[in-house]
Design goal:
- This protein has helices at 2-9, 16-28, 32-44, 54-63, 67-79, 86-98, 102-111, 117-129, 133-145, 152-164, 168-182, 188-200, 204-212, 220-233, 236-255.
- The protein is built from 15 helices and no strands.
- The mean pLDDT is 94.
- With 256 residues, it is mostly helical.
- InterPro entries: PPR_At4g14850-like_plant, PPR_rpt, TPR-like_helical_dom_sf.
- PPR repeats lie at residues 85-119.
- GO terms for molecular function: RNA binding.
């Protein structure tokens, strides 16, 4: 990004495209304040916004959990007539969800004349991160009726909601449904959700067995979820086995 700024500052004609590139570049490496600083400078220079400007701005607002700035960006969406742009509306849903305003996110969702898988996943993820499992499951059924097929990100949101909402049996059902019905191989993020869900419910040994059966290499998130459950329910023997496996993994990685 330093080299990008160097070139940008020495360019004679700083176009909307170049501003968009800087805003998107900073947002992509999670430097959200710098991304918004470029957007602010862009508006001060009275550069014309286009369809590629505001999705990255909204991502940066979400990254800072700034509902105030996000609402200002939403005003810009209306002002420039971008509301019916699919990518911009999807970014609005994600921004409002991550900033905690699920009602506003749902209003955007309901008013959209067109939706895609990203739209459905963004709204499901919003409900999932706030633990409203009932809304997640209802929206999932609506998505299927609308003819959209879920992807791995969709199931991550659903399993997260089941875990936070204490819906263990429902979570098991969706985990099995991933591959059985939709042909999606569970990734490490899905196993992490399942281990967390089983651990929260006190099924620590079942969570350990699931980790042992994983077809992908467990990461720190999986082990952390399992150790957290051991600590919560004082499963000392399971914790010892987990710690031995973590130590063995570290020793093997050093040899490599």
């Amino acid at each position: 990004m330093e080299e990008a700024v160097f070139i940008f500052n020495r360019t004679n004609r700083q176009s909307t495209f170049l501003y968009n590139s800087m805003i998107r570049g900073y947002a992509s490496v999670n430097l959200f304040r710098k991304s918004l600083n470029f957007y602010r400078h862009m508006t001060l220079q009275r550069k014309q916004l286009d369809l590629h400007t505001l999705p990255s701005v909204l991502k940066s607002c979400a990254g800072l959990s700034s509902l105030h700035l996000g609402r200002k960006a939403h005003v810009a969406v209306f002002k420039h007539g971008f509301f019916y742009d699919l990518a911009t509306s999807n970014a609005l849903i994600s921004m409002y969800s991550k900033c905690g305003d699920l009602e506003a996110a749902r209003q955007v969702f309901d008013k959209m004349p067109e939706r895609n898988l990203i739209t459905w996943s963004a709204m499901i993820s919003g409900y999932g991160m706030h633990g409203t499992s009932g809304e997640v499951l209802g929206l999932f059924e609506e998505m299927l009726v609308a003819g959209e097929s879920p992807d791995g990100a969709t199931f991550t949101s659903i399993l997260t909601a089941c875990s936070h909402g204490g819906r263990m049996e429902m979570g098991r059902k969706f985990f099995e449904m991933m591959e059985g019905r939709f042909g999606l191989k569970p990734g490490v993020e899905h196993y992490t959700c399942m281990v967390d869900m089983l651990g929260r419910a006190g099924h620590v040994e079942e969570a350990e067995a699931l980790v042992n059966e994983m077809e992908v290499e467990p990461d720190d998130g999986v082990w952390g979820a399992l150790l957290g459950a051991c600590n919560m329910y004082r499963k000392v023997e399971v914790a010892k086995r987990v710690e031995e496996k973590i130590l063995h993994r570290k020793l093997n990685s050093k040899r490599v």
